[in-house]
Specification:
By secondary structure, the chain is an alpha/beta fold. It is built from 13 helices and seven strands. The chain has helices at 38-43, 58-67, 77-80, 90-101, 114-145, 158-166, 176-209, 211-216, 224-233, 243-250, 274-294, 301-308, 311-332; strands spanning 6-10, 15-21, 27-34, 49-53, 71-75, 254-256, 265-268.
Length: 344
């Protein structure tokens, strides 16, 4: 009997499906598994390559299967889809995963440890709280509009707005029932601000204690939040052959629609880690804003870009440049050294 070499595993909440093939790619089994029997099934299998889609729970199962002696490969779902044959069900998905894992040029996702996922959870939690804060601010401003009062934008105005709501002579048309609801929303907003502040302190503490994050913070536009996020969410720098590959993984490179030997480039692809991409763009925006007010170094790349390109284009281009610098610093394990401009 042929020995199984590759197993494609389609995971879900309760029902799993495994598809195994031998070294020649011939199917040996296609088996439906319940969640409680998955580890027993793989413990009885000889050591082989087990492939999964990089979706929810995949890193947990990858760690469990690796402890059983299997070589685990996580594949982005977008790379599995071309191998799905016609209809879709668990068996076909498992076969597609198995087929994709056997491609020699396939790209895989690095398996994260529990500590890495815990560090990444800090940023996911902060993002959630920031979104909730934005929703509350928009709700307060929107409801005040119904009473003829246009509130200024931004969280920095909320404290002043709370004082105005308490003063009846400032907004005399505000009913008591509405005033009570505004107080409730503003109290929730205060609690969210306190929790976001606590998370910011925790992120800053992590950044100070980690050598990699301290090195990343030497790059202009990279602060404690961005540095810690890169260390927690980005795969090992050695995964990428060059800095452009890392920038492409973040979705900061142009979208290509080239054909017939003609190069056609569009906007940024936005196909990658959205959290890191957003943080890099925010950081580069701060650098561009400062350069616009105080002036960029004479003869620098940034000065030349600001002289001939729109500000937002320069911001995204700088984020791309920062991503490549991040990759270089992680690979070479060095601090950032600002380029020296040639004197006229």
């Amino acid at each position: 009997m042929s020995k199984v070499t590759t197993i494609g595993l389609d995971i879900a909440k309760h029902v799993f499906h495994a598809h195994g093939v031998d070294g020649r790619g011939l199917a040996l089994f296609s088996k439906r598994l319940s969640r409680g029997k998955v580890l027993d099934f793989f413990a009885a299998q000889p050591s082989c390559t087990v492939a999964l889609e990089a979706c929810g729970g995949a890193h947990h199962w990858a760690r469990q299967l690796a402890q059983l002696g299997h070589q685990v490969r996580l594949i982005p779902p977008a790379y599995v889809k071309p191998f799905v044959k016609r209809q879709k069900n668990d068996a076909i998905d498992a076969e597609a995963i198995c087929e994709a894992a056997q491609r020699p040029s396939m790209r895989f996702v690095a398996v994260k440890s529990e500590e890495q996922q815990a560090a990444g959870l800090v940023f996911r939690t902060r993002d959630l709280l920031v979104r909730q804060r934005t929703q509350l601010i928009n709700a307060v401003r929107g409801h005040l509009t119904e009473y003829g009062w246009i509130a200024p934008k931004g969280p920095s105005h909320m404290a002043r707005l709370a004082d105005l709501i308490e003063k009846e002579e400032m907004i005399s048309s505000l009913p008591d029932a509405a005033r009570a609801m505004f107080r409730l929303m503003l109290d929730l907003l205060t609690g969210l601000n306190d929790r976001i502040g606590d998370l910011d302190k925790e992120i800053a503490r992590r950044a100070r204690e980690n050598e990699v994050t301290r090195r990343l913070m030497t790059i202009p536009g990279i602060g404690p939040i961005s540095a810690t996020a890169i260390a927690a969410l980005a795969p090992p720098a050695e995964t990428f052959a060059k800095g452009r590959d890392f920038a492409a993984w973040l979705g900061l490179t142009p979208l290509q629609r080239s054909t017939g030997g003609k190069q056609k480039l569009g906007g940024t692809s936005k196909m990658g880690e959205r959290t890191l991409r957003r943080l890099l763009i925010i950081g580069s925006s701060a650098v561009v804003q400062q350069a616009s007010k105080r002036g960029a170094p004479r003869g620098s790349w940034l000065e030349q870009m600001l002289a001939r390109k729109p500000r937002m284009v320069v911001t995204v281009a700088l984020a791309n440049k920062i991503a490549r610098i991040v990759w270089a610093l992680l690979v070479k394990q060095e601090d950032y050294m600002a380029p020296v401009t040639a004197k006229a």
